[in-house]
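Dear support,

I submitted the protein below through the web form. The confirmation email said the job was done, but the results page showed an empty box. After a refresh the structure appeared. I'm attaching both so you can tell me whether what I see now is the final result or a partial one.
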Amino acid sequence: MRRVLIVTEGEVTEVEYFEALKSLLKLVSVDLNICGKECDSSPTAVVRYALQRADAEGAHDKGGYNDVYCVFDRDTHADFEKALSQILTANKPKSLFKGETITAVPSYPCFEVWLLMHFVDSRAPFAAANGKTVAQVVEAELKKHSPFENFAKSLTKEMVEALQANTDNAIERAEKVMRDAEKTGELNPSTEVHLLVKALYDLQRK
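What the results page shows now:
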């Protein structure tokens, strides 16, 4: 049985999203664990917890985690680049990381960009404005789309159903955005959550 660990920066939205996806996919041959409340909400805290959890479970070839994913936001985190560097180091040969692979799953500026991609295709950069943080600005855009009018971090059944109905469109948009981001060097807005979603769907087919 393949073992997968997802550690998220967010305590609510991300956890509920991946738990809903786990339920939808019914990954009977995969041990999928999702954590979001066990660590502080910073990129390096997410990576640190993921490494500690993998270490506690033991080597991947002896029942430990095969795949470890760290889901965190660019936002205004001062330790964002450090977290990416820590993941690169953990993937190097002879590192102390006991999993098979550990992967960063960043969003620029935040996870809600992924949710927004289920409804709209946009490359207009997000920035803090009018007393709102950049994350709040993204959330305001998300609230323009039904059934997210009253979105407040937690996902309702209707929201989950709307997201799952539009997953293919979101993946297509995210891939298009990634190509443009690589071409222009502008990562805001973009996300790599679709790569994790696709990986989970691939596990369902095995």
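Response: this is the final, complete result; the empty box was a page-load delay. Residues 2-205 form one domain.
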